[in-house]
Amino acid sequence: MFDYVRKRSAFLIFMVPYVWLSAFLLVPLIVIFCISFSESLIAIPPFAPMISWVGRHVMQIKISFDNYAFILSDPLYILSYLNSFGLAFATTLLCLVSSYPVAYGLFLLPKRTRFFCLMLLLLPFWISFLVRVYAWIGLLDAQGFLSLLLQKLGLFHSTEGVLGTPVAVLLGMVYTYLPFMILPLYNALEKIDFHLVEAASDLGAKPLAIFWKIIFPLSRRGALAGSILVLIPVVGEFVVPELLGGGKVLMIGQMIWNEFFYSRDWPLASALAMLMLVTLVPPIMILQRLQKKL
């Protein structure tokens, strides 16, 4: 009897994450998937049910592909997808390039100093995300420090400031998601035997050669993990392009928000969300396959 109860308890504990994922991830996803094939109505809820009953015994299933056809034929929605994925890949690449020096610097620090610097890295997470994004508005407007600096360096020529441009959105997203790249990279670098770096240096290898021959190959798992953590949320980002882009840089997250809350076209918004998920599958699968090969 005791063994039965113990096995039963172990099974229930084992099932907890699956039940949680089903309730809060799988079921909502199925609901959105079903709504995406329905028709919009001026009602509550604002969509026609897929399944209805004709009489008592006849079940009628109505599936509409109009939402998907409309999205794929409208240049505005296609542009928002292209903007989202273009900025997502650019953000991931910039985060990767920027994170290596920071993660490697943390790796070289003494343990006490390293812990303090890691706390500084995590400090922004203690501040409201909206407050951090609003702070960038002051830096990127016409008289902002970064706008004036970029103009002085000749990297930006408009006198209206960087705010409301793809550059502002890119800077905001790199700042927001940089820690998500640094931490996996730091974790991967921490597992490298530093004696390999010392041996290469003693044998006359230059810093760049040490990086490409030792550090980069041994930290690729961390780089791929960080890329996944950055790429997925950036594609559906809403707050940064809305505040720093000023509505001029259309991304798919904004389009979904507008359709859900302004137009109240839930079927179209659901179709936009499902297409975003489908288009995210290939890059994620490629990154995961690369991670398994390492």
What features would you describe in this structure?
73% of the residues lie in helices and 3% in strands. It is mostly helical and 294 residues long. It has a single domain, classed as MetI-like fold (Orthogonal Bundle). Strands 1-2 form a two-stranded antiparallel ribbon. A hairpin with a 3-residue loop joins strand 1 (51-54) and strand 2 (58-61). The chain starts with a helix and ends with a helix. The relative contact order is 0.12.
Features:
MetI-like fold, 13 helices, two-stranded antiparallel ribbon, 294 residues, single chain, 2 strands, mainly alpha
Amino- and carboxy-terminal Cα gap? 47 Å
**How many beta-strand elements?**
2
Element order: H for helix, E for strand: HEEHHHHHHHHHHHH
Structural class: mainly alpha
Number of helices: 13
CATH architecture label name: Orthogonal Bundle
The third-level CATH topology is MetI-like fold
